[in-house]
Amino acid sequence: MHRPPLVAAATAAAVLALPASATAEPLGPTGPAVHGLAGRSDADVVRRLLDGAERLERTVPERPGAPAPFVVGGAPEAPWDEVPFSPLLTVGTPTSSTLVRVARDGSATGTATSERPLSDLSSAPGGDAEAYRTVPSDGTTRVAPLLRDGGATSLGYPASDVPVAWSPAGDGFVTTVDGRLVARSTNPRFSTPIDVEDATAAAVSPYGGELFVRRQAEDGPTLVVGPAPFSGFEGTTSWTDLGLSAYSPGAPAVGQEPGLGVFAGDELTYLAFTGTDPADGTAHLYVDHQDDFTASGYGSPERVADVGAICGGLAPAFSPDRRMLAHVVAVGPTGAECSELEVHVRSLGTGRRYRASTPDHTVWTVPAGTPVTSLDWRAQNPAAAEWRLDGAHRYEVSAFTAFFYDPDSVDAVVLAGGRSPADALTAVPLAAALGGPVVLTRPTVLGWDTLVAIESTLAPGGTVHVVGGTASVSPRVVRQLREWGYTVRRTGGETRYDVAANVARRLDVVRGGSPDAAFVASGTAFTDALVAGPAAASLDAPVLLSRGSSLPAATRDYLASLGTDAEVFAVGGEGADSVAGDPRTEVVGGATRYEVAGNVADRFFAGWSVLALADGRSWPDAVSGGALMASVGQPLLLTRGRTLPEPTRGQALRTRASLDLVLAFGGSASVPQAALDAAVVAAGDQTTYFGLDLP
């Protein structure tokens, strides 16, 4: 795995915690469920799923007449050997934007003024969404998905003073409002202020964990680097001055060494800015080619181009493949240099460095007297990858999810009866806490598929947690597990409500204390508990069951044992009715099961990179998939036959900037291809650094 660019000893694929200097400031309901933007690392999710797919294909042989366990569709026929070339450069002014088409050699092939008056355009890292301000301004920065047929609904955020800086995973961006940096998620509920004074511009590192900031110090502008609260590789945890104040730098741009992705292990980062030469005061475009994986790797910028004058400190812009760098050159008369501007594109030189000797092209002459407010390249990446986890029946689909868990790190497996939905659904948070899968078994016999899943995931002597009574998982199954060398612990109960409460208590033991939150869902409407599982796991909370609109004694007693500060999340209509009198309760409901699923995702997840889909009319294929998504910090959304319900589509459109994979659990009878195709369209294109079909 790759080392982060600024802290050589840091561990990649880690979950970022908010640093002490950047505290959470949620935009919405407070409480343990609303936290900072940091979540499961996008790099961790990608690597985990790719490794699991490889294990599954390597372990499960072809079976004549049986569906392939793992189906990939819609991906390129061969791996991409480099980031696709993008010819689209947008030059923004205070009143309009101009699209410049750029050839591979950096020359212009044509221009067109936008029919949509807007400014400060900033494209998401997949090229499938954009942030901008309208002209005339409506006082907001708007974020909208890009759709071929148009009609996309935008979200409004407080207006940024400068173009927003997207995170490389597309899960959020940094805005600058009145000199204050704020990191925002594509989910408007989530926001985190960045505690650095007098900041005027920012750029997020390719790894997502670090923020390069231009700030005004006592002796003039400087560039500093510090923590960014996005999901990504763990980076620096404190602010460091990069030692570039002598250059009076403008806004920074950051790009990774081209031809390599964040997993390559030996790539470096480029830092570009306009500034003045400390020796003679002339204005230049500089590129600081990072020399090692620490902050001291910066501080020796190379003069790349004469820019005539510093006109507003506008950030240059690396193309998505990092092989070209766009910047502005002042060509006006002496004393009024900034009255006339040109947009130039400089190509990468030998040794993967930008140099003054590399080709430079004038791609557009700006109308006289017009300032340039933004430079933006739009990526043209492959569509979201399409995967399907299939099987001949529910037990195979469940078994195949187990291969996505690293056997070297799994200490326990949760086993539930394949005819007992309530038991299986409440087991998801327990499995997530134990770091293992939920595997379904036939009630009276341990099938080969279930056994292979356990054997491939859990070492002999490991613990299998059986959830449910003997009617769900018979004593014969337990005996077979013990004969194969596993330790078995059963968590049962007389009713499904007792089982759920006892699983919650088992989770208390694993956790080492009572939770700060609990979820309550209907014990008869399985979909509410299904979508609650990943959300509950994100808070290390249990899923309890209601009996219609009333609370069974087992559920009531467990909730009573929690502190008065604990939050109770009622998911769905019946769950809400059952705890209506509890002052700790927050309802997460909806008019339909599909709307409930979308609202749960909206309430508990700042963003996600996997659009996980399960049949909203059946539970078996979904329950193990929900446990897998819980383990990688992703929500589960629902389909309805051939239709992609509007709540599911809406969530995909809003988060398409970060979606790299659409993953369906079950065969075409569960998630028909038409629904999967619609989901891929809504999910947009893969992000440049983390896309599964990109380096």
UniProtKB/TrEMBL annotation:
Q: Which residues form the signal peptide?
A: 1-24
Using the UniProt annotation, give all residue ranges assigned to the region (Disordered). Answer: 105-147
Q: Which residue ranges have biased composition labelled Polar residues?
A: 108-122
Q: Give the keywords, sorted.
A: Signal
The family database entries (InterPro entries) matched by this protein are listed as: Bact_Sporulation_Assoc (IPR051922), Cell_wall-bd_2 (IPR007253)
Q: Which Pfam families match?
A: CW_binding_2
Coiled coil stretches, renumbered: none
For whether the record's keyword set contains Ribosomal protein, the answer is no
Protein name in UniProt: Cell wall-binding repeat-containing protein
Q: Source species, please?
A: Phycicoccus avicenniae
